[in-house]
Design brief:
It is a single chain. The strands form three sheets. A five-stranded antiparallel beta sheet has the order 2-3-4-8-9. The protein is an alpha+beta fold. The protein contains six helices and eleven strands. Helix 1 packs across helix 6, helix 3 crosses helix 6 and helix 5 packs across helix 6. Strand 10 and strand 11 form a beta hairpin. It folds into two domains: 147 residues, N-terminal domain of MutM-like DNA repair proteins (Alpha-Beta Barrel), CATH 3.20.190.10; 125 residues, Helicase, Ruva Protein, domain 3, CATH 1.10.8.50. The chain binds a DNA duplex (16 and 16 nucleotides) through loops.
DNA sequence: GGAATAACCTGGATGC
DNA sequence: TGCATCCAGGTTATTC
């Protein structure tokens, strides 16, 4: 599933192809891919055609392409199965392709950016850019701006401007489970079910431990493990369990080979040999080692 | 305001 | 072989 490392791989793959490119045409093949753009397909197309792209920027799991004029941006959220694929301008349609952008780049010529999404939880939109506090709004641009739909999303753990002290304090004020806190994108962004389980295992913290039950030192250690897991996944091209996550060229990542607990219910923990447990957790699953990760 | 939960959605896997 | 059911999970609206 696309979490921070997967979205960053997509962003870094798109950036050289779309920066300074002009959008010549837009094909909306399925309006369900525009749930974030309430004004509909015709408005979406009108706001994009003829515009030049400034950069490719990411905060957490949100990706956006600021448009010339610096007033608005094309935003993308990949949901659970969204893909942004770079193709030749006349390439055949992808399976589950919902939107295609035709672009013309000064150096690379005519290309297509295909947004494909099997489960249709992902969406594109054109959204106004708003000022954000101090530092750059996201990775990939120096501008202190974010799309209005991203304004409530916290900075991610790899963002140099991430406020570690504020995060630790916020965690220790909360009575809910630490895993739920890690998945709260308004506190820390970019973490999904896979990396939450992996970071908690690495930090030896039970996913159902309450935030208020953790020491500042424990939260700091968890944050450190979050960063290590995200950086390692990024270095390995992200996690691909199936065909749902690929980079802009359609290639899978390798981090699935480094997974310690996620999806390994019933298999031995690599640290202590105990069997990894899988339990239901708010409409999804949590995986943890019952010996290494004691509940506090 | 914090916390919990349901709904959205498709296709692969599984069971009968 | 065909059909029904379960499961995966990020975000947001709703409810308490």
């Amino acid at each position: 599933m696309p979490e921070l490392p997967e979205v960053e791989v997509v962003r870094s793959g798109l950036a050289p192809a779309v920066t300074s490119a002009r959008i010549s045409a837009v094909d909306v093949l399925d309006e369900r891919a525009l749930t974030r753009h309430p004004l509909g397909a015709a408005d979406f197309v009108a706001r994009l055609e003829g515009r030049a792209v400034r950069a490719a920027v990411r905060r957490g799991k949100f990706l956006w392409l600021p448009l010339e004029g610096d007033d608005d941006a094309l935003i993308a959220h990949l949901g659970m199965s969204g893909q942004m694929l770079l193709r030749e301008s006349d390439a055949v349609r992808e399976r589950h392709e919902r939107i295609r952008l035709h672009i013309e780049h000064p150096q690379h010529g005519r290309l297509a950016v295909a947004f494909a999404d099997q489960r249709t939880f992902g969406s594109l939109a054109v959204d106004a850019l708003v000022a954000t506090e101090g530092a750059a709004g996201g990775f990939g641009s120096d501008l202190a701006q974010v799309p209005s739909q991203v304004a409530h999303i916290a900075r991610d753990a790899l963002d140099p401007a991430f406020d570690e002290r504020a995060f630790i304090a916020a965690v220790r004020r909360r009575s809910s489970a630490i895993k739920r806190i890690l998945l709260d994108q308004t506190l820390i962004s970019g973490i999904g079910n896979i990396y939450a389980d992996e970071a908690l295992w690495a930090a030896r913290i039970h996913p159902e431990s309450h935030g208020a039950a953790l020491s500042a030192q424990a939260v700091r250690r968890l944050l450190s493990e979050v960063r290590l897991v995200l950086e390692k996944a990024l270095a390995e091209g992200g996690t691909s369990f199936d065909a749902q996550y690929v980079n802009v060229n359609g290639q899978a990542g390798y981090f699935a080979r480094s997974i310690e607990v996620y999806g390994r219910g019933g298999k031995p923990c690599s640290r202590c040999g105990s069997l990894i447990k899988r339990v239901a957790f708010t409409n999804r699953s949590s995986h943890f080692c019952p010996v290494c990760q004691r509940k506090r």
